[in-house]
């Protein structure tokens, strides 16, 4: 609409609307004050041509270092930028992508985040503000409903929304969950939009936790995630200082949180939602019934 396609001042100078004879001027704001340098570097290189300075590096906008995590989460290996790979397959319905009114959702990743938040609340001493975002509405709504069911809502100020709904927001720790629309993750349309990815990685002040499907071959087809030329998101993260980045397998988190790498699979029952449903006592921790237009999730204990 305004003719701007680049943050490069040389390119901007050649846009007629902003030429020397025009009264319209461009002022590039090149310092970000929200995120610590490691996180800021990600979105600076991803979308802003590596032009951003980082105010917190000089104690402007916040401390140069990330706030200390609860000890339990530090011991599990979380760092300012943490990549969590979670299983996506047809082995069980909780691992398989589903759709609710054409909006994709993934049960396992929702259950994992639910338990991470439950444990974070228990371990936290002081208040935290937490963000949980997903590209897809059904996934964001599923997680939001799970968290609303918690009996204890103390210490954590949680905002759960789609990436679109998170525009302009910021949180100390952000869980950015990229759930695919199918096993062909490379077909997921929101995985191919620069704007979506940029918002997802730029909302966190101190900790960015990226939850990605373990469909490595499919994800490798997405240049926004894996490309040295673009550069891709994962290429940028791989270039960060090693002490700023952690790679954690979701099954290892599940084992530490729940006592077994297959706890969610062993303690859940998933079935197609019928027109008439009669519910008795839960014989599994998670009873899930779903169809293309409805999703019921009954939890034995929260």
General description of the model:
The chain has a domain at 70-260: P-loop containing nucleotide triphosphate hydrolases (Rossmann fold). The protein is 27% helix and 22% strand. It has 10 helices and 13 strands. The protein has helices at residues 9-13, 37-47, 71-75, 107-123, 137-148, 194-201, 216-219, 233-238, 250-258, 263-266, and strands at 31-32, 53-54, 81-86, 98-100, 103-105, 128-134, 156-162, 171-177, 204-213, 245-249, 268-272, 286-290, 295-299. It has a 6-stranded parallel β-sheet. A 3-stranded mixed β-sheet has the order 11-12-13. Helix 4 (107-123) packs parallel to helix 5 (137-148) and helix 4 crosses helix 9. The termini are far apart. 36% of the residues are buried.
CATH fold naming of the domain at 70-260: Rossmann fold
What would you call the structural class? Answer: alpha/beta
Q: Sheet bearing the most strands, described? A: 6 strands, parallel
Separation, N- and C-terminal Cα atoms: 49 Å
CATH architecture of the domain at 70-260: 3-Layer(aba) Sandwich
Helix content range: 25-40%
What is the element layout, followed by pairings?
Elements: H1 9-13, E1 31-32, H2 37-47, E2 53-54, H3 71-75, E3 81-86, E4 98-100, E5 103-105, H4 107-123, E6 128-134, H5 137-148, E7 156-162, E8 171-177, H6 194-201, E9 204-213, H7 216-219, H8 233-238, E10 245-249, H9 250-258, H10 263-266, E11 268-272, E12 286-290, E13 295-299
Parallel strand pairs: 1-2, 3-9, 3-10, 6-7, 6-8, 8-9, 11-12
Antiparallel strand pairs: 4-5, 12-13
Helix pairs in contact: 4-5, 4-9
């Amino acid at each position: 609409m305004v003719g701007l396609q680049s943050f490069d001042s040389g390119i901007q100078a050649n846009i007629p609307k902003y030429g020397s004879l025009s009264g319209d001027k461009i002022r590039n704001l090149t310092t970000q004050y929200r995120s610590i340098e490691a996180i800021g570097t990600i979105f600076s290189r991803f979308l802003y041509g590596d032009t951003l300075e980082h105010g917190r590096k000089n104690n402007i906008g916040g401390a140069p270092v990330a706030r200390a995590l609860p000890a339990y989460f530090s011991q599990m290996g979380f760092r300012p930028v943490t990549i969590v790979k979670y299983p996506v397959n047809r082995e069980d319905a909780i691992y398989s992508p589903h759709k609710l009114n054409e909006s994709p959702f993934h049960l396992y990743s929702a259950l994992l985040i639910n338990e991470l938040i439950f444990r974070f609340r228990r371990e936290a001493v002081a208040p935290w503000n937490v963000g949980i975002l997903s590209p897809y509405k059904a996934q964001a709504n599923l997680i939001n409903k799970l968290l609303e069911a918690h009996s204890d809502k103390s210490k954590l100020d949680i905002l759960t929304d789609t990436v679109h709904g998170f525009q302009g927001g910021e949180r100390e720790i952000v869980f950015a969950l990229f759930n695919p629309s199918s096993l062909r993750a490379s077909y997921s349309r929101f995985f191919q939009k620069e704007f979506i990815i940029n918002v997802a990685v730029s909302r966190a002040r101190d900790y960015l936790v990226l939850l990605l499907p373990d469909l490595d071959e499919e994800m490798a087809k997405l240049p926004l995630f894996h490309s040295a030329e673009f550069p891709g998101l994962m290429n940028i993260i791989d270039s960060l200082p090693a002490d700023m980045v952690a790679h954690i397998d979701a099954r290892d988190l599940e084992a530490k949180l729940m006592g077994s790498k297959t706890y969610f699979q062993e303690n859940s029952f998933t079935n197609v939602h019928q027109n008439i449903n009669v519910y008795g006592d839960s014989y599994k921790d998670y009873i899930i019934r779903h169809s293309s237009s409805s999703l019921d999730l009954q939890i034995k204990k929260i």
